[in-house]
Write a structure and sequence with these properties.
The chain has 299 residues and is an alpha/beta fold. The protein has a single domain (3-298), classed as Alpha/Beta hydrolase fold, catalytic domain (Rossmann fold). The protein has ten helices and eight strands. An eight-stranded mixed beta sheet has the order 1-2-4-3-5-6-7-8, sandwiched between helices. Helix 3 links the parallel strand 3 (68-72) and strand 4 (99-104). This is Esterase. Residues 69-273 form the Alpha/beta hydrolase fold-3 domain. Keywords: Hydrolase.
Length: 299
């Protein structure tokens, strides 16, 4: 493991998700320990997207933005909100120059699949219809997220393709949760890794899917049999992450389906370790997310 990351492992909370309410509080406390981002070069606005139900969003709008991204926080579909994602959404907006639309999707287990996906799809449609107000064009809207949020982004891309929904320019998938079956080597073997391990992943999927196997590729994108016609993707994986192999497999399957993919496997990292901003590898990870998005929206 990267020695700059290893020094912080003891400060991370135990990797478990048995009590969602308690873990949400712990997750929020962890988020407040991250240095606050500089938002002086952008406007930040909380809004509500009309829907059934309405969806809260936070819009980060840098000056002279070239495009937009619908962005979903991590937290295993169980934790996280606009506040916990604020440090990362703001840094993504700064690094990419894109409008970042952070989505406060409904959480499991109170709202299992497809609630979160429906919320994201509502926001995608709203963004496409209101692109001019956001200062972008409808053909320059990307989708992405961390962890569970990355899984939601991949699922939304599948749904938009199948339903002839809004055009999605690009997928920015950072350590996404894609496969509820947990049959890969990394999913089976990483039982004691920091922050995320096999048991915690099992609990995440159990809460999200109400204890049932995924009924649709929109719930677990790795179950999709056809990945053709999807938007180009950037996929980032962490070496000591249970999601690692399913993410690499998904990236390779996208490539074989004719979808342009950039895949970066970050050596010495663990799931969510980019939150440790004092580590050089974390800063490089966050910078690359912004650069990849900027390039995709400018092409």
């Amino acid at each position: 493991m990267d020695p700059e990351l290893e020094a912080f492992i003891a400060l991370f909370p135990p990797a478990k998700l048995d009590d969602p309410i308690t873990e949400r509080v712990n997750f929020a406390k962890l988020a407040t320990s991250v240095p606050k981002p500089d938002t002086s070069a952008m406007t930040v606005e909380d809004r509500t997207v009309p829907g059934d139900p309405d969806v809260a969003i936070r819009v980060y709008r840098p000056h002279e933005a070239q495009g937009a991204i619908i962005w979903m926080h991590g937290g295993g579909w169980v934790m996280g909100d606009l506040e916990t994602e604020h440090p990362w959404a703001a840094r993504l907006a700064e690094g990419s120059g894109a409008v970042v639309i952070s989505v406060d999707y409904r959480l499991a287990p109170e709202n299992p699949f497809p609630a979160a996906l429906d919320d994201v799809y509502t926001v995608l449609n709203w963004a496409a219809e209101n692109a001019a107000e956001l200062g972008v064009t409808p053909d320059r809207i990307a989708i992405g997220g961390h962890s569970a949020g990355g899984g939601l982004a991949a699922a939304t891309a599948l749904r938009a393709r199948d339903e002839q929904g809004p055009s999605i320019r690009f997928q920015l998938l950072n350590q996404p949760g894609l496969d509820d079956r947990q049959e890969t080597w990394s999913a089976r073997s990483f039982t004691d890794t920091p922050w995320m391990n096999r048991d915690k992943v099992s609990a995440m999927w159990r809460h999200y899917l109400a204890g049932q196997p995924a009924s649709s590729p929109y719930a677990a994108p790795a179950r999709a049999t056809d990945l053709s016609g999807l938007p180009p993707a950037y996929v980032a994986t962490a070496e000591f992450c249970p999601n690692r192999d399913e993410d690499i497999d998904y990236a390779v399957r996208l490539l074989r389906s004719g979808v342009p993919v950039e895949l970066h496997q970050w050596s010495g990292t663990f799931h969510g370790s980019q939150a440790i901003l004092t580590a050089d590898v974390s800063r490089r990870q966050l910078t690359e997310l912004g650069v990849a998005l900027r390039r995709a929206l400018a092409e």
